[in-house]
Write a structure and sequence with these properties.
A four-stranded mixed beta sheet has the order 1-2-3-4, covered by helices on one side. It is elongated and about 100 Å long. By secondary structure, it is of the alpha+beta class. It is 35% helix and 8% strand.
């Protein structure tokens, strides 16, 4: 293998004049050359490793973390037990991420949580609907619009579906119950492991929103289920109760 101890030993041996004889008859020379080859293989390996760290697509280990810190500071950190390939993909995505657009905001939340957020711009008829139009139904579809809220948007972001607390049964599950030998316990939000925090979601929105704008954000697990039938309307529908959500300005 190129650069290993035996490769370098053969190269060094090839530079010796013929009168040094063969390896079997000169063990002292062989030992000296093997020592030099060991050091040379170490240096070659170190140079090869250093060369990998000069490019994001080949960097590994803590050097990827240093690259992320150079570009993003503390905004992009490696998750627990995250592989180099996974972390590298996150770095590249964020380097070339679309920003300052509605599509960019939706995409960053999709990448972070795996779920598509609901975005409502009060000055955008396509979001709010219009009187006499197909997107508006009081209590059924659309949202309140207002020209007095320029450069603002309402976002309902969803927490990832796969988060939870290991080894603890869900409320009402058959494996958990009072005074029974089961996996049940009082829980709190800090006990949740392996999930995206609300702070991560707020930071992601802040990283892509346009300057001088306000994004009112509510973070929920799920939206209430819409009514099964809306008289006179066919096809999928969704009811958004923006009034009963708690929003954080970003």
């Amino acid at each position: 293998m190129t650069g290993d101890q035996q490769d370098i030993y053969r190269r060094l041996r090839g530079y010796l004049p013929p009168w040094f004889g063969d390896e079997a008859n000169f063990p002292i020379v062989q030992g000296a050359l093997q020592g030099l080859a060991y050091a040379g293989a170490y240096v070659y390996g170190l140079l090869s490793y250093a060369r990998l760290q000069t490019r994001i697509k080949s960097a590994t280990d803590g050097w990827l973390d240093m690259i992320a810190a150079d570009f993003f500071g503390s905004m992009l950190l490696r998750a627990a037990n995250q592989s180099d390939d996974s972390f590298r993909a996150r770095i590249l995505i964020n380097l070339f991420r679309e920003r300052a657009t509605r599509a960019g905001l939706i995409r960053v939340l999709q990448d972070l949580t795996g779920r598509t957020p609901v975005v409502i711009e009060p000055t955008r008829p396509a979001d709010t609907g219009a009187y006499g139009g197909p997107l508006l139904g009081y209590g059924y579809a659309g949202a309140y619009g207002s020209m007095s809220m320029p450069f603002q948007a309402f976002v309902i972001a969803f927490r990832p579906a796969g988060t939870g607390i290991p080894n603890i049964a869900g409320y009402g599950a058959s494996t958990g119950g009072y005074s029974t030998p089961s996996q049940a316990a009082y829980a709190s939000l800090p006990m949740i492991q392996g999930g995206v925090t609300d702070a991560d979601i707020y930071a992601a929105i802040d990283s892509v929103k346009p300057a001088a704008t306000i994004v009112w954000t509510s973070i929920v697990q799920n939206l209430p289920a819409p009514p099964s039938v809306i008289p006179g309307i066919t096809g999928p529908t969704m009811v958004l109760d923006f009034a009963n959500q708690t929003y954080q300005s970003i």
